């Protein structure tokens, strides 16, 4: 694909450099300040007397604040599909789906059971086997949709590399083995398109949502808050390279005291109030209740953790994390485009991932007027303006 199409030196993710926000940016063309997704789900119960939590099972219409390219495609009468995509639950703009959690009562899952690929028992305990096993099933589900339903747009997500790097860190043989395994899954998708007779008319865009780096020390933000003995109920959501802090009835004075809890502490890179975080694309509390009252970034080698501890910083075996500022080289993502409508450009310069949605919209010839991203016209052989 790289030889016959186009690939970028890197693709800049949005902040925060985590999965659901960046998936959302690549289908909306805007950053988190507009789509409001800043975690792998909807943050609820923030700014109360009890700890907040993240609810993954949240309908897309509640979670994502702006239209998506698959909404635009569906509205234009095109067939859309998703396999293991995120921030997409119960989306009206999807025609065919095989979700992250699997459901034996859904048509595609039923097809796979009839083919003997999975059993009802497999689907009932879908999260128990390895992620590699699930990625193989996701690939077979995508192939089934391609061959039987010929979608105009398919969104397909594989997780094995992220999972193994979270466990073992970045840049080792485990990660390289996962990359080779996932290359084979991409090959299966290409072959499915070929078997469906759609290869000449299909564009492939291969992307990642964020990078990963190794971690050797954990920061326990709840310990830091407990030691500070603040007068207002205050809670932290640890997210690897960053932590979100919410406070009930925060004021300018209490926010200053809250910032002092973290500023200058071991492993802390920076501490940002909402106005400061907004400069890097984060939503503020005035824009959405998802926006934190304080954003704290970890230094490289450190990650915010929710594990139990009596001290603020602990040693850990090498693991992996993301969520660090999108200026960090290891947080950057990949971009490869090949197939119908893609020029044989080879390597192009780094660009922002919000450009992906606008480019997909151009390839599908559907409008996406709210997108801030720009069409990557330099890589296209079709759909260029007159």
Query: What is the count of DSSP helices, taking H or I runs of 4+ residues?
Result: 13
Instruction: Profile the largest sheet.
Output: 4 strands, mixed
Low-confidence stretches: none
* Cα Rg: 21 Å
State the share of residues found in helices, binned by percent. Answer: 25-40%
Question: Any descriptors?
Answer:
single chain, alpha/beta, 4-stranded mixed beta sheet, 20% strand, 386 residues, globular, 4-stranded antiparallel beta sheet
Folded structure, characterized:
This protein is an alpha/beta fold. Helices cover 32% and strands 20% of the residues. The protein has 13 helices and 18 strands. A four-stranded mixed beta sheet has the order 8-16-1-17, with no helix packed on it. It has a four-stranded antiparallel beta sheet with strand order 10-11-13-12. A three-stranded parallel beta sheet has the order 6-5-7. Helix 5 (107-114) packs across helix 7 (131-149).
In short:
By secondary structure, the chain is α/β, with parallel strands linked by helices. 32% of the residues lie in helices and 20% in strands.
């Amino acid at each position: 694909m790289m030889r016959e199409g186009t690939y970028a030196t890197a693709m800049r993710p949005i902040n925060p450099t985590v999965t659901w926000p960046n998936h959302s940016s690549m289908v909306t063309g805007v950053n988190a300040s507009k789509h409001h997704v800043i975690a792998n789900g909807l943050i609820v119960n923030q700014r109360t007397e009890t700890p907040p939590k993240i609810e993954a099972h949240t309908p897309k219409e509640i979670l994502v604040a702006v239209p998506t390219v698959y909404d635009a495609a569906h509205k234009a009468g095109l067939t859309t599909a998703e396999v293991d995509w995120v921030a997409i639950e119960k989306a009206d703009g999807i025609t065919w789906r095989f979700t992250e959690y699997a459901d034996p009562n859904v048509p595609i899952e039923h097809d796979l059971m009839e083919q003997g690929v999975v059993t009802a028992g497999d689907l009932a305990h879908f999260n128990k086997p390895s992620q590699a096993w699930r990625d193989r099933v996701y690939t077979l589900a995508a192939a089934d949709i391609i061959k039987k339903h010929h979608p105009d747009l398919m969104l397909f997500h594989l997780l094995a590399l992220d999972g193994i790097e979270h466990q073992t860190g970045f840049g080792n043989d485990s990660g390289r083995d996962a990359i080779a395994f996932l290359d084979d899954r991409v090959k299966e998708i290409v072959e499915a398109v070929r078997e469906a007779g759609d290869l000449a008319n299909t564009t492939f865009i291969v992307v990642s949502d964020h990078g990963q780096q190794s971690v050797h020390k954990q920061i326990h933000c709840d310990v830091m808050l407990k030691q500070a003995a603040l007068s207002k109920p205050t809670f932290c959501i640890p997210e690897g390279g960053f932590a979100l802090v919410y406070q009930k009835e925060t004021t300018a004075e209490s926010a200053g005291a809250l910032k002092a809890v973290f500023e200058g502490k071991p492993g802390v890179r920076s501490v940002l109030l909402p106005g400061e975080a907004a400069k890097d694309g984060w939503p503020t509390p005035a824009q959405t209740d998802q926006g934190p009252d304080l954003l704290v970034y970890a230094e490289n080698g450190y990650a915010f953790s929710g594990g139990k501890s009596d001290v603020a910083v602990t040693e850990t075996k090498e693991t992996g994390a993301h969520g660090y500022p999108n200026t960090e080289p290891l947080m950057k993502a990949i971009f490869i485009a090949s197939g119908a409508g893609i020029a044989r450009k080879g390597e192009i310069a780094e660009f922002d991932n919000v450009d992906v949605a606008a480019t997909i919209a151009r390839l599908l010839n559907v409008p996406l007027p709210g997108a801030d991203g720009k069409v990557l016209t330099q890589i296209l052989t079709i759909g260029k303006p007159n």
